[in-house]
């Protein structure tokens, strides 16, 4: 599976310009690299302009969903569409989406863990569900940024069969060490490929740290983006290695859930 990740410098508060930017990137990358899957970062239509979201967010997923569906169909490409601010029943959610080559929606997810350090709970409503989906016949999970800190969420996806974990983010420079090492931990403990897409640039005094990564199920970094600039990371992943690795070190067979007391 050839995957291209867009480590984007998001234009704050300007969904139209960001959609134009993404269209240009997708059209070019599809011509140059013909990936099977492309991945966008968290909140890529608006950036983290939390106080403005009620005015500029999508409504019931539109127009961003249709925009991504058209891009998927035109380029015959699967899209992990990052996430975008999305108003449903007058509440703003941080909504992620996955779309196949025919433009069909494979999965929708609203970020479950809101970030106290950003007062997200004042602006956003949390989602309540997360589950696996299939992309090109591969079982996958999709989480958003702060979700990475909760091993239970990724573990549940792996126990349910995920072999690849997509992480879309706007992770700050201030906690870059956590960003890199938690991803490696999630890959090793769950024996999954991790594909993450972070943004770069800064907004409102927060510097984002790039370092979008592709990591194999042994925790080896296959590819890592730079820290400051827009970049496309493209790699071919051999997903057949997952069952082989899980057979050699049979973590899932060795689990003893009856001993674990956390809910
Ligand atoms: O957990 C962190 O340190 C960063 C999380 C974050 O910025 C986010 O979820 O948007």
From TrEMBL:
CDD domains (UniProt xref): nitrilase_5
Superkingdom of the source species: Bacteria
A Gene Ontology molecular function term of the record: hydrolase activity
The keyword Cell cycle appears for this protein: no
Residues annotated as domain CN hydrolase: 1-239
Name of one Pfam family that matches: CN_hydrolase
Keywords noted in UniProt: Hydrolase
Family membership noted in the UniProt record: Belongs to the carbon-nitrogen hydrolase superfamily. NIT1/NIT2 family.
Protein name listed in UniProt: Carbon-nitrogen family hydrolase
Species name: Halalkalibacter alkalisediminis
Biological classification of the source: Bacteria, Bacillati, Bacillota, Bacilli, Bacillales
